Amino acid sequence: MTQSQRREFLIHYLLQERQEHTGVSLPTGEEKQRRLLRGLMNLRPPAPIEGEFLRVQDDYLRERLEERGVTQLVDLRPVQPGLYLWQGDITTLEVDAIVNAANSGMTGCYVPCHGCIDNAIHTYAGMQLRLECAEIMRKQGHEEETGHAKITGGYNLPCRYVLHTVGPIVSGTLTKEHEQQLASCYRSCLDLAAENNCESLAFCCISTGEFHFPNEKAAEIAVETVKAWQARHTGELEVVFNVFKDSDREIYEKLLG
């Protein structure tokens, strides 16, 4: 199959799977088709899916990753011993584990083509990630608590693992509890990465997007918490602070020198 044939196969499969998609036609143009496929993947609940779909999906996502390009840890230069600052798409970063800013349901973002990191990670990992997250939550029997973390495979991402953590939602005034919960997110991920023999871990800017945690304070907590953890676990884990926006890069540059 060519990449175009894979994309069309996946779109047709997902359209035929659900009655509410009746009448939706395949658009012309590569970018429109990519967007439709992403939206359909975002909408699909964590139900069993045929092996043929997964095989085609995996081939499609691996080629997409090659097109988008992979950044390895050796390509980066540390800003401090064991600490890196990198601006880019975390779904293209090859480290042992990346952190996903998840919601309490833990099965990803269901808003088609939404701009959050949760949506991007689930999109480029593939359907298997949502299925694994759903199984974890089924066994747990309740929503994930703020400040905790769970680990899954990375599937079609270049990382080995994804650590899913639920950050605090700031709907008004920032409180001490919010700050403590955010620090707990970082500690939980660091501990979980170490428990699973990871040597490198990339953090996104947890809670600063849809959850409205003030960016500067969030970065301060991130740097302080990671440094304190590394001081107690010397040489165990290299950490990348991943930013997407210029404004976040500037904040971390001030904090890290």
From TrEMBL:
UniProt GO MF annotations: hydrolase activity
Keywords in alphabetical order: Hydrolase
CDD domains from the UniProt entry: Macro_OAADPr_deacetylase (cd02908)
Name under which the protein is recorded: Protein-ADP-ribose hydrolase
Keyword Iron-sulfur: no
Native organism taxonomy: Bacteria, Bacillati, Bacillota, Clostridia, Eubacteriales
Superkingdom of this protein's organism: Bacteria
UniProt cross-references to Pfam families, sorted A to Z: Macro (PF01661)
InterPro entries associated with the record: Macro_dom, Macro_dom-like
Domain named Macro: residues: 70-257
Organism whose genome encodes this protein: Candidatus Acutalibacter pullistercoris
